[in-house]
Amino acid sequence: MVGTDTIFALSSGGLPSGVAVIRISGPGCRETLVTMSGGLPPPRLATLRSIRDRNGSFLDQGLVIFFPGPASFTGEDTAELHIHGGRATVRAVLQALASLPGLRAAEAGEFSRRAFHNGKLDLVEIEGLADIVAAQTEMQRRLALEHAAGGVSELYENWTRRLTHARAMIEAELDFADEEDVPGAIGQTIRADLHAVIDEIECHLQGARAGEIIRDGLTVVITGPPNVGKSSLLNYLARRDVAIVTDIPGTTRDIVSVDLDLDGFAVRILDTAGIRDTAELVEQEGIRRARTAVANADLVLALQDGAEVRVPSVPMPNGAAPVIRVVTKADLLGDISSTPDALAISTKTGAGMNELLDRIRAHLPQLSEATAFAVPSRERHNEALRTALHAIDEALRLPGDELELQAESLRRAAHAIGRITGQVDVENLLDIVFSEFCIGK
Ligand code: GDP
Ligand code: ZN
């Protein structure tokens, strides 16, 4: 059960830090503040207090903020202690909290879980909040904010409401089929609205790929035969030495990756072992991993050595990902230049590098509209939305007199979307029916 224990945790980051924030939530919050900060401070006002353990030993001086429930993050009585961020200070305060009856250290995500159970946040908002904390690039931040602020939940709730409404109409028809007040068959208005919901969900799902790329980053895999310049390219892009560059073929045995921030998008670039036959086991493992990396790539850079007299035919990666062909070591060959098919680059002179980044950029989502960040951010959302689409479509295809089956399909559709936000709504059918029809007449 939720809310019986009072939980606490260090909510700010690593120690030492200038200020550390300890969060407390639960029914024991008030008593804790009375014991440790010499009385309950006025609600929502940062108040300077001496912080003491239960025996009265002075631990630190800091700001105490009390958020009485339910108007708090978790919905419970909550408090924050802003103390000095020294390791020993934080440890002493945490120990003092742990020694109070009914208090225990919070588990991972427990504050958010309480917020969800108390109806303060839905699942999409909680996911967004987690993404805000994890966001490393500008686009990740904006995507996370859109979800945390409830913009996407509003969409989902709107669809659930309309599906529930349509179902209520059909069920009303079932229950009162003999009465005269109820309009006939799955009405034209309802059909039209269900089609509109389908269009809106499909449109929303079109942003799924963008959402995934923004959140998880674009995975770019560099492939090509040994010694073609893969590691050199990775190092050039990273502008730091992360992979071993040597003249001996087959030195890159592990995949080494760097994360780039390209125009606010996270782009992960993977270097792979050269794909070729080898008897050496360790290298074979590297090659196996390289193949897996290519199979999971969003974009492949297939490198070919411009310095080779006979340009070796690169075994073209046959994954689903688009491929950019790159000819390396352009500095060694005066006459090699880029074509639309293959881009000539040199890690020695930097030639072709801006063009390469531009060609990678072309695979990033184009976000122009204001609603660009109101896209699904997780496969969980996509799956549920596809389930809903399927179920609505089913309801529309059913024969007009199959009211019960229609209602059941719409119930499944609304249920699928309700599960995205974690607020499956089953109780308000009758309210809707009563508000739309004069049933009591
Ligand atoms: P990998 O096996 O594909 O990872 O290739 P490396 O990055 O280890 O490079 C193999 C060799 O080619 C090294 O000696 C590099 O210095 C050299 N090399 C890489 N890129 C270039 C380039 O643009 N120009 C020239 N001249 N040499 C390069
Ligand atoms: Zn290498």
- Percentage of residues in strands: 15-25%
Number of helices in the DSSP assignment: 14
CATH overall fold name of the largest domain: Rossmann fold
Largest β sheet strand count, sense and barrel closure: 6 strands, mixed
CATH class of the largest domain: Alpha Beta
Number of domains: 3
Summarize the helix and strand pattern as letters: EEHEEEHEHHHHHHEHEEHEEEHHHH
What's the shape?
A: flat
Q: What's the arrangement of strands in the largest beta sheet?
A: 3-4-5-2-1-6
Which structural class do you get from the secondary structure elements?
A: alpha/beta
Low-confidence stretches: 425-441
Q: CATH superfamily membership of the largest domain, which one?
A: P-loop containing nucleotide triphosphate hydrolases
Helix content: 40-55%
Give the names of the bound compounds: guanosine-5'-diphosphate, zinc ion
How many DSSP E strands?
Answer: 12
**How far is it from the N-terminal to the C-terminal residue, by CA?**
44 Å
Gyration radius, to the nearest Å? 30 Å
Mean pLDDT: 85
Question: What's the CATH architecture of the largest domain?
Answer: 3-Layer(aba) Sandwich
Family: Belongs to the TRAFAC class TrmE-Era-EngA-EngB-Septin-like GTPase superfamily. TrmE GTPase family.
Subcellular location: Cytoplasm
Organism: Mycoplana dimorpha
Binding site for GTP: 227-232, 246-252, 271-274
